[in-house]
Amino acid sequence: MSGSRVEFRVGVADPLGYCCGLLRAADSKGARTVVCAPPAWIDELDQRLWTFSQLDFLAHCRVGDALEARSPIVLSEGADVRALQGRDCLVNLGTQEVLGWQQLPRVIELVGSDPQAKAAARQRFRSYRAAGCEPHNVEP
Question: Is this structure's pTM higher than 0.70?
Fold first, then answer.
């Protein structure tokens, strides 16, 4: 049985934009977050975190960066967080289950509105249940 709280936010029109707002809220509360996504999405998210707001700066880096241990937001191109320590939340933008999710208190699955993303999310939902976790749907 996992102690992680898992949330699915399905039908997000702009997952990267939504993620920026989510990371801003988490950062304002002092959370230490890891974001997993495909490489092209990580590149775009990295850019957006610099430009999405003229009033905010969200300190972030990529997995493996020298500042990883101190950065409140870490971006990962992989779907494995087992080597990361001291993180409060995982935000998954990818289509596969992230290995090591059980070590984090909170997991947020951001799911776009296209049929492929929804089908992959249904499979992850079942995987969480099989692991003894009861995921929750949260309106985006």
Answer: yes
State which residues form the domain around 37: 5-137
Q: Look up tokens 């990818």; give the residue.
A: 94
CATH number for the domain harbouring residue 59: 3.40.50.10110
Give me the number of domains the chain comprises. 1
In this structure, what DSSP letter does residue 3 have?
-
Q: Give the pairing type, strands 73-76 and 60-62.
A: parallel
3-class secondary structure per residue, 23-64? HHHHHHCCCCEEEECCHHHHHHHHHHHHHCCCCCCCCEEECC
**Which DSSP state fits 69?**
T
Other C-beta atoms closer than 10 Å to the C-beta of 102 total 18
The stretch 103-111 carries a mean pLDDT of 97
Dihedral sign of CA atoms 72, 78, 81, 83 in order = negative
d(CA 86, CA 72): 10
